[in-house]
Design goal:
single chain, about 300 residues, alpha+beta, 12-stranded mixed sheet, 5 helices, 19 strands
Amino acid sequence: MQSAVRVGLIVNDGKNLAIETALFIQSKLEKEGCEVIRVSSSGGMVGFANPDQHLRTLGYRACVPEGFDSSMSLAIVLGGDGTVLSAARQTAPVQIPILTVNTGHLGFLAEAYLNDLDRVLAQIIANKWEIEERTSLVVSVMRGDQRRWEALCLNEMALHREPLTSMCHFEISIGRHAPVDISADGVILSTPTGSTAYSLSAGGPVITPDCPVLQLTPISPHSLASRALVFSDEEPVTVFPATPERLMMVVDGSAGCYVWPEDRVLIRRSNHPVKFVRLTDHEFFQVLRNKLGWGLPHVAKPGKV
């Protein structure tokens, strides 16, 4: 007897619209004979911690929910972009593709919308979809040989002082290259997916998702020579804080911890990319145009009469 198709549902339980949509999707899939495992997206929200009091020794795989494994066909994510970032931590370690359904605001990472849900589910049930892989990073805080904190990252790692407006110093080592010194309010290390997030606001370039690169962007640098740098994602990055006060590290906006002068932050490409379900051709420039207004034609304002 053939086993039922297993589908995950990752839901932002803080939004009534996401909860109501989850009930509809679960009922629809179960009528088609699917086994549905529903979990909260909060399981992927690592939160903020002081690693001197709470060591995250289990590593980034600790976010995978019970019942989620490689036998699952896909997981449907209901929420906004923050929910997608959490869901990526819950699924990437076991390589489950995610279908992102926007119940939030901007929905830059969304593949589907509520007004087209019936067609989307029919396409999923008919198995008419493809997978696009996005680079993810493993971000670890190390003290000597001890891993004190770790999380998976889809967008970016940002390291800065509290408050953000205080300048600090960083020594950054990229692979085999000579270390560089940066004086700035902070630094951002981002993936191509994250190039349209915090890094873009800090003046970094947009990078198309198919480029195998990472990007280092200083936040308000104290030098005209400190500008964004793009380099191969095969190069591991180590950031040494050269500032006597503690720093705050933030990963994807929903995870982070304090970093002390005796610590170092190690960032490396994960062996587990985030897999996105694509129902149509995902034309990246069109997404930039629709979501961020990139490339729209300039229309002159009418002159005063």
